[in-house]
User: Fold these one by one.
Assistant:
Number 1:
Amino acid sequence: MEYLSLHTKVRRLGYLKLLVKQYFHNDYWSYHSLSKYFERIASDGQIQKELDDYNSFYSKDKKGVIENLGTGVSAEPYIRLAEDLSLIARSNYSYILTKTGKIYKVILERYEKESSKFKFIEEQRVTKQLDIFGLNMHSNLFALNPLDKFFFLRLLIEKDLIYLYSLLNIIRKSEKIYLRRHEIKYGHIKENLLSEVLLKIQSFETSPKVTHTTRINAIELKKKIAKKNLKMRSYESIVEPRINWLLDLDLIDGLKLRNGILTLTHAGDVLLDATTNIFDINLFLENDFLGVFNSLYDLNAKYKADQQNRIKKYLDYAFINFKTLAPNRISASQAITYISLMCFLREGFILEYKDVKSYIFAIDGKGYTIDWFPSENDGSIKKINE
């Protein structure tokens, strides 16, 4: 159980996408030079125009802009966020992509080369709206498509569920309070956020569904958050970035937000309901997340049985895309996530992580050797030379 400690600047998730794209042709970036380099890339005139269009045509926001100060200071908060979300990691004085970051990079690069083959990456409703303006949703960095939303939402649930859920719940409650009034709700959120967060943590403490370790972690987390927030005079760094993430993920209504009114979208309502009774985050991400994600954005992917051939096809691709120093051996969790997502985005059917994992375990000794370590919830897959 975790939560993110944030800089108030980190409001646009699209910049994280741009950061991952810098690894299309480089496996690593110097720890000392990445922020300065990325600041220059992110402040390019075309990127700034896309941010302006995002604000004008998508009814979104352009706060959190990266400016070219020549020092890297403007980009540094986003790099720290990418590190905290486990998209990148430090290694030998360099920043490299993590296992998750590599999956995102591999699929993102493939999508940009052959987007027409990704059957369920399009959101038809949004696409039709943008056609009115002659805009292409693929061309705007900040207009997140289902691939982007999958990774960012999954990481936020994993790393920041306490605050994510609490904000969604406060917004729903405040909708009832201000149903007949048109008042700015930020004040209401800031006044009630701490109590809502502590209430959510308390549910982890008292639920019979949680493990002893989770209960102990919840108690320690409550002490940590209470101590920190009691000393803070401003909630800006807590609320503002997260509200903007909800906006980027289409979980709150952008048009109403322009008038200072926070309202959940259909996707926000679905996510709140789906996360209300989560007491094991990993179990939710492995067993239910893809189905919930499909419902959030009305993507209409289907559950289909007997997909072994497609799983095998993408397993073979995984061995090509995620090579390690060990011959014919790849990370099991990386391969499983990749297969699950490619079947969803390219083939249009839902295979949860657990379903692919079951298939992987079933082929142990049948052309592959599976080593799994429960304590790490990961392992390796080795292809046996025939």
Number 2:
Amino acid sequence: MPVVAGLLAVLVLALPGTARADSVAPSCSVGDSPVQCDAWHSAAVTLRWTWSPSGETSTSGCDTQTFAVDTPPTGTSVICTVTWDTVFAGSKTTVLVDRTAPVVTAAIPDRPPDHDGWYNHPVAFSFQGSDSPSGIASCDRVVFADPAATAGSVVGGCTDLAGNRTTASFPVPYDSTPPAPAQVTAAPGDRSITLSWKAPPDTAAIQVARSAPGSATGPAVIYAGTGDHATDRGLRNGVRYRYLVTVLDRAGNATATRLSAVPTASSLRPVSGSRVATPPRLTWAHARGARYYNVQLMRRGHKILSAWPRSAHLQLRAVWTFRGKTHRLKPGAYRWYVWPGHGPRSAHRYGALLGSSVFRVMP
């Protein structure tokens, strides 16, 4: 009997009692290991046929074949038919081979960036890919949290149905390290305070917020930008104002510095109550008509220095001599006074006291 053209599925045509339905059977192997024929494989597959009983008169399509290249997505179908005189039996199998690794096409984050295109908290990425002929079986989901360990890239991959795998990396704009704090100083003025700062190199912006005693509205932002100073005006002299100077980096990480200051109409600097670690430069406003000034420095109620500078400032020293005795600027509190001098110094003509202030030398 001839083979029927277009034979599909399992072909069994036999006279009763002369051939069994399972008399023709395929077997597949990869190397020396038997495998399932109709499953995807990532290596060359060898197809062999067996049949019973022996003594066949002819076969068709039953030669041993090795499939070493990719098959179509639906696989390659092979039909083997065996004839015993007037009886024949046949079987069909499909071989699936995919030796091509998948392509990783994207890593999709599970949320938008935290700040201005940057992430500063752990974020999960779902990898996506494409593959032919077998198709994608699975792709990784990777939580990115430590750029130092991954050189700033998320690494993951996809696996196809044949077991081929490809990994890829994608850069992640990630920074979770807060910037260094700004070095901030406050210079009180008449109803104003000027804040100056030196920001770290990775600063993207500076924000300054002020809190006033008894305020019911909370801190008020008085500055936001990229400059190096800000002047807070319209304040009340003698009232202590507290400031929070926040450094923001490009990823939105923040580090805050706290300080306080009291505005004053006095022109004397350092401002009364200041703490210094080195000999300070005493300054005051120029007095009209003054030809010189008399500055007196007191410690524990005793005068330890009297000087007559011609300009409105006096740089103190760590060691000096006054009335034949050597003095040192030791830790502790010091009060100083300044008067304007008129005419020649020998005239001893002094104007009204310009002011008095206290500073403390820290250990």
